[in-house]
Specification:
The structure is a single chain. By secondary structure, the chain is of the alpha+beta class. It has a 6-stranded antiparallel sheet, with helices on both faces. β5 and β6 form a beta hairpin. The longest helix is centred in the middle third of the chain and has 38 residues.
């Protein structure tokens, strides 16, 4: 925070705001000065001093020690020829030291005090502290020595006790007086300020006197030897955007006499400080003669809040986008996925389907199915699974589904239709793959003729027993969209009365880690179990009930993809 440059950066408005702050401070200084002149004490030369009198005898050395409010020891060091301390004789303790010992080491924890004793014999760890050096320096310079932090261990009958104190040693005739304040309060206060990035100060409005906390410079980022900024310096170092709030805060404290708070940024620094200020009055309800403030570095907190707000905005946009994608994909899905009732009765078949979208995703996926009558009196039946999720997968599955519907009108065999559909998928600019079962049902022969393009093979449920249909000659064909000019083979399945053909996507059975054989066995077992529990009733409603129960049995928290089940029954 540069406080050596009183000229503010920024616009003319900023300069006017800074002038207003200085005028506010100057006006308050005049008010305090006038109050002091009117109600202050007379000048020193006008004071009439009473004659000096001496009452009673002079106090003893022990009386002087006991009058001290801090712990005190009277020491007589033993110096060697090199001026270093060889031993220290403890001559006397004051009442505060005795009370501190009794509180810290109760009962028989320490040997009883019997008079002058070697300090290093009573507390050996003191010899390794700075106290011997402080005694030597005090003897050499004749000036008091002080250390903010001295720590030592006292071995007691109940175990070692750690002591931390601020120690001062001063020459006292031929002896030395050691005083201490327990707890290292200054060091703990400094450490606390650094931990919470908080400091405080009190500014006297009459003479610019400042009483800062120990960590004031460090928290504000000032050099250790830099002067503590006055309120005017603080305003000059404030960024232009914060001058208005600083003026309002000073106005509230000085004239309205109330606690206030504001946020400050200083030129040349990216840190943000929250200042909470209160008035210090001469008398209750009277003139404000000082301002006391606590400043806390809230930069990290503000950055975290801003990051949280950005994350919330991003999450909200993503949620809105996901909702829009789900809505659009849902419309597409409803437009392309048929809802069976009795449409296939004329072909001697009943159909039922269940589609379960991928719940963690956009609520839709690339699964699709189709059952459509053809001009030659036969029935096109297909079920596929386009790669991916969401709108992209729905778009691909719609393209493939409508392409197949158009190709089917050529009356070409299903293996040819599958080959053409593979070319459609390969022609996509980006990677577009899909698996599929493509079939044509011949009602006059009750024959299902079908191909497989990388998809799980259909399952035949006959008299309650489930079995996967044999693969076409040469095995299942390649997935659609992998390689152009791929050929596919078809196989035929004769349907008997009561037979149910189940076509499904792998999202219904696949688990992690994937094992296709186990997935197939899981599906076969579930199909037979649902049949044994309750055989499908007659009509579309009975078949629909069966497929819904089967999907519910296979569904669960381990499913990671959208799933589709299409059932065809010859009644």
């Amino acid at each position: 925070m540069p406080v050596d440059d009183p000229s503010p950066a920024g616009s003319a408005r900023s300069r006017l705001e800074l002038q207003s702050i200085r005028a506010l401070l100057d006006a308050q200084r005049r008010r305090v000065t006038q109050y002091a002149e009117r109600y202050g004490p007379p000048a020193p030369d006008a004071v009439t001093r009473p004659p000096k009198t001496v009452v009673g005898a002079a106090p003893s050395g022990q009386d002087v020690l006991d009058a001290l409010s801090v712990g005190a020891l009277l020491l007589s060091p033993v110096f060697g020829e090199d001026g270093q301390v060889r031993d220290v004789i403890l001559l006397a303790r004051n009442a505060t030291a005795r009370a501190d010992t009794a509180a810290r080491y109760p009962g028989e924890a320490l040997p009883a005090w019997t008079g002058p004793v070697s300090l290093f014999e009573r507390v050996p760890s003191l010899a390794a502290t700075v106290i011997p050096r402080m005694l030597a320096d005090a003897r050499r310079t004749g000036a008091p020595q002080q250390s903010d932090a001295v720590e030592w261990l006292v071995n007691t009958r109940t175990g070692p006790v750690r002591v931390s104190a601020e120690v001062r040693i001063a020459p006292c005739g031929d002896q030395f007086l050691l005083t201490w304040e327990p707890g290292g309060r200054l060091i703990m206060a400094d450490a606390a300020q650094q931990l919470v990035r908080t400091c405080w100060a009190e500014w006297n409005l009459a003479d610019d006197g400042i009483q800062p906390s120990r960590g004031f410079r460090s928290v504000l980022g000032l050099p250790e030897n830099a002067p503590v900024p006055s309120l005017s310096d603080l305003a000059a170092a404030t960024t232009p955007d914060c001058l208005t709030t600083l003026y309002q805060a000073l106005y509230d404290v000085l004239l309205r006499k109330r606690v206030t708070r504001c946020e400050l940024r200083f030129r040349g620094s990216e840190r943000i400080f929250r200042m909470v200020a209160e008035p210090v009055r001469i008398v209750p309800g009277g003139l404000v003669w000082a301002l006391r403030a606590v400043l806390t570095d809230v930069t990290t907190d503000r950055r975290r809040r801003e990051a949280t707000r950005r994350a919330e905005r991003h999450a909200r946009r993503e949620h809105e986008r996901a909702d829009a994608v789900a809505e659009l994909a849902g419309v597409l899905r409803d437009a392309v996925l048929p809802h069976f009732q009795d449409e296939l009765d004329s072909y001697g078949l009943e159909a039922a389907a269940v589609y379960r979208p991928d719940a963690p995703g956009a609520g839709v996926g690339g699964d699709w199915y189709k059952a459509r009558g053809l001009p030659d009196g036969r029935l096109l039946i297909a079920l596929g699974d386009a790669r991916g999720h969401g709108l992209e997968a729905v778009t691909l599955m719609a393209k493939l589904r409508y392409a197949l519907a158009g190709l089917a009108y050529t009356s070409e065999p299903v293996e040819r239709l599958t080959q053409w559909l593979n070319e459609v998928a390969c022609a996509e600019a980006r990677e577009s793959t899909a698996t599929a079962i493509i079939a044509r049902y011949h009602p006059e022969r009750t024959l299902l003729r079908w191909t497989c393009a990388g998809h799980p093979r259909p399952v035949l449920l006959r008299e309650g027993r489930a079995a996967q249909l044999p693969a076409p000659e040469g095995g299942p064909g390649l997935t659609l969209g992998v390689m152009p000019e791929t050929t596919y083979n078809a196989t035929e399945t004769k349907l008997e009365t009561g037979d149910i053909v189940l076509m499904y996507s792998d999202g219904l059975t696949e688990r992690r880690p994937a094992d296709p054989d186990q997935d197939t066995l899981r599906f076969l077992g579930a199909a037979e179990s649902c049949f044994r529990e309750s055989a499908p009733g007659p009509g579309h409603a009975g078949l629909q009930d069966y497929v819904e129960r089967l999907v519910a049995r296979l569904d669960g928290p381990h499913c990671t993809d959208d799933a589709t089940l299409l059932a065809l029954r010859r009644p």
